[in-house]
Every structure is written in structure tokens, then in C-alpha cells.
Amino acid sequence: MKRFLSASTAFVLLASVLAACGGGNSGSSGSAGASSSPGSSSPSSSSEAPAGNNSKEKVTINLWSFTDEIPNMTTKYLATHPDANVEFKTTIIATTDGAYQPALDQALAAGGKDAPDIYAAEAAFILKYAQGDASDYAANYADLGLTDDMVKNAGIAQYSVDIGSKDGQLKALGYQATGGAFIYRRSLAKDTFGTDDPTSIKNEIGPGWDKFFEAAAKLKAKGYGIVSGDGDIWHPIENSSDKGWIVDGKLHIDPKREQFLDLSKKLKDNGYHNDTQDWTEAWYADMSGSGKQPIFGFFGPAWLINYVMNGQVKDTIGDWAVTEPPTGFFWGGTWLLAHKDVAKDEAKKAAVADFVHWVTLDSSDTGLQTYWANGTMKEGEQGTKDSVASSVVMSNANGQIDLLGGQNMFDVFVPANANASGKNLTQFDESINSLWRDQVREYTAGNKSRDKAIADFKQQVKDTLDIASE
């Protein structure tokens, strides 16, 4: 995600968001232990965890991440695995200033006893480590005893599997699910459409962008904008495209992504938005209803609700709901990979596999995702409820939150995760997306023609990444 901030409060907010969906800023090391995990509620299930480490010598797992989120999970893991025989040595390097990837690359290449055994990658660069230049360092999950049946039995969203796979071999999975929904104001829905029911609103705004813009016109007649800025529709457009930016080694502009030029201009020309940019004070203001015109909604995953909107909606808390978007998409997420060399040591292999399984595939009552979904990571304390990778867990979890007026958000995010696609990504997306969105804004602002914006975009990609156009 792009990070443009205009005030110290915005910086603090974004720091918490990055901890939830990628990013971070502190370092620590912790120790304690890894044993056999219960795997699933049925001991005979094919999703049962691999055998844990039963050797007498304690295993050290080198864990690398860009926030303290995964390292903090080790505390809960050890508390729920009292017979564990492992210690975690954590390295945390923030993604700010591009520091994490070069350090991780160097550590992976160096190998040896200090090499990362488990490492994290966020959506912006997971393709590099799961499918791209650095993918050869990653172990196949199957070589750790983590099977396709485990993935199936946990109901892991296919987009997450596709992103974490290379040549049919799974190399990475996440614990979050970041399929996107449309998050809208109930009061504005009632005033415009006569109802705030999510099923009815779903049919007002979609499926498809024609229906969405019909809704935008109805909202405008009432004095409301449908979204805050054009960035709000970019993620659904980007992730619903048929092909990614690179096809056969050349820059490819998918027709659905090219359409962003026209849809963005339509939003601006008709006053359907407040012309904000995401991650700015004006964007946050529209969450609280204090922008230049009331804004109907935002596109995003559960983390946008939990870690961004939750601190910004102010008096509009409870006046929000979620429904299915006009098209499926995802935004963000963190994946776990294991170094291929862990398979050379049976004790380390078992310990690494057990922890990775507990985080990414364990759908039992004592699996990480059950605690994560229900906000029960800290015993006796109600924490943040979040969408997780396992649809089995979410189907049994309580996703009701006050911001949504008590709506169970998991009723929407389970199908949202299933409708997202992970087949249109490349390892260059973060850079190319930034260039594309800048050119689209130049066009919609009237600073250049449509053809000129496309031509300049192609040239910038060539100059920046040395990738020629089709």
C-alpha cells in the first residue's frame, strides 16, 4: 500500500496498520519452546499436525519478520504447548526505507546456523519469495509434512494458496485472510436506498461497475459521494483483472486496469468522490463524516475496519455495515515461509513444521487462527477480531463488532476471501502500481491526455524497471 502521511497522528495510525497487514518497527528476541500440536479437532483428521520435536536437545528457530506480530505469536504458542522443546530467536527489521528485504536476502544467501528458519513476507513482496527471484530458498510445505489435505480441511482461501505456490508446490501461507468487502454508512444507505440491509445494498452497488455508478448517481442526488477518492476503487479493479502487469516478460495493461482511467475520470467529473488520496488526513476525515461531502463507503478487508477506521470513525461508530463488493479482490496480508535447509535436520524440521502448521493450518480451538478470529490472544482480555485464512475457523467464530452495529463481519468476509484472485500478481506490482496511479491522477486532473498518460506510464516502467511494453 502507498504510505503518504501529513501529520504525526497519521504516522502513529499507519504504524498500527502496518503491524496488522505488513510493516513494523521494532526488534526483539525471545525464547521458549515447540512440541506436537493438536492439529485439528479430530485426531484422525488429515489436517493433523506433523509430529513435533521430541528430542532432549532444545531446538533454536531463527524467526525473521518485519513487525513484532508473528514473533509475539510465539508467546501464545508456547503457552498452549507446555511440552515444547524449542526456543525462538527473532529478528525484526521494519520495511520502512526498504530495509527488510535486503537484510533478509543477505541472510538467506549466507545460510548457516544463523540463517532464517521461518521468515515472513507481506503482499507487496511475497511473489519474490514464493515464486520469483528468491523462491529457491523456500521449502515446499509438503517437504515439511504440511499437505494439500490440511489446506483443504482448514478451508484456506484459494487466492492465498495460489500466491504462495510455485509450479504446483505450496511454499507459503498466511494466517490472515484479506479478501475485500464494501464498507458503507447505514444512515446514508437508508436515506438513499430505503434500507441498510447488506443483502439489499449488495444488489444496489453491484455486481459490476455499471451498477456501482448507478448507485453513485443516486447517492449524488442526495448530496453524498460514493467513495472518498479514486484509490478506493483501485484495489478491486487491480485484483479483478484477468492478467497481471507482466506477461511473457513485457509490460501488459489488462483492459480492466486500463478502465481505471475512465472510471477514475467518471468519479471526478461527476463529483462522486471527494478527490482524496488514501493514507492522507482528508481520507481519514471522510471516515468520520467530516469531509466536504458525506461519503458512503470504502473498499477494504477486515484490517481496514479494525486498524484504520476503528480509530477514525468517531461519532459514526455503529453506523457502518459490510457487504459484498461489485467484484472480488484482496488487499494486503502476510505469508510464512520456511528455509529449505530446515528439512536437513529432523528435529528442526519437526519444530518448524509444528509452528507453521499452528499458525497457518490449525483450525482447532487451540490453533492460532481461532484466537486471532475471536480476539482472544490474551487470556481474559477481549482483543481485536480479525478475518483469518481458515474459513472453517471463521464459520465457527463470532465476528460481531460495535463499529458495524453488531453485524457479524465473517458472514461477508468468508465469501469475500473465496472470491479473491491471486493469479494476477507479479513481484514488481508495488512499483508499477505507484507509477500507474500517478499517471491516472495526471489524466483525471486534466494535465495530460489519456494516450499521453499511458505512453508516459510505459516509458516510466521502462526507465525504472527496464521492462519494455508489449
Main attributes of the structure:
2 domains, single chain, five-stranded mixed sheet, alpha+beta, D-Maltodextrin-Binding Protein, domain 2, disordered N terminus, 470 residues
Sequence-ordered SSE layout with sheet pairings:
Elements: H1 8-21, E1 59-65, H2 69-80, E2 86-92, H3 100-110, E3 118-122, H4 126-130, H5 148-154, H6 158-163, E4 165-166, E5 169-170, E6 173-174, E7 181-185, H7 186-193, H8 198-205, H9 209-221, H10 231-239, E8 246-247, E9 250-251, H11 255-269, H12 281-287, E10 297-300, H13 302-307, E11 320-323, E12 334-338, H14 346-360, H15 368-374, H16 391-396, H17 410-419, H18 429-444, H19 450-465
Parallel strand pairs: 1-2, 1-3
Antiparallel strand pairs: 3-12, 4-5, 6-12, 7-10, 7-11, 8-9
Helix pairs in contact: 10-11, 11-18, 18-19
Verbal overview:
Helix 11 packs parallel to helix 18 and helix 18 packs antiparallel against helix 19. This protein is about 40% helix and about 10% strand. It is built from 19 helices and twelve strands. The two termini are about 25 Å apart. The radius of gyration is 22 Å and the shape is globular. Mean pLDDT is about 90; it is low at about 1-20 and about 20-45. Strand 1, helix 2 (about 70-80) and strand 2 form a beta-alpha-beta unit. It has two domains: about 10-175 and about 335-375, Periplasmic binding protein-like II (D-Maltodextrin-Binding Protein, domain 2), CATH 3.40.190; about 180-330 and about 425-465, Periplasmic binding protein-like II (D-Maltodextrin-Binding Protein, domain 2). The strands form four sheets. Strands 2-1-3-12-6 form a five-stranded mixed β-sheet. Strands 10-7-11 form a three-stranded antiparallel β-sheet. The chain has about 475 residues and is α+β, with helices and mostly antiparallel strands.
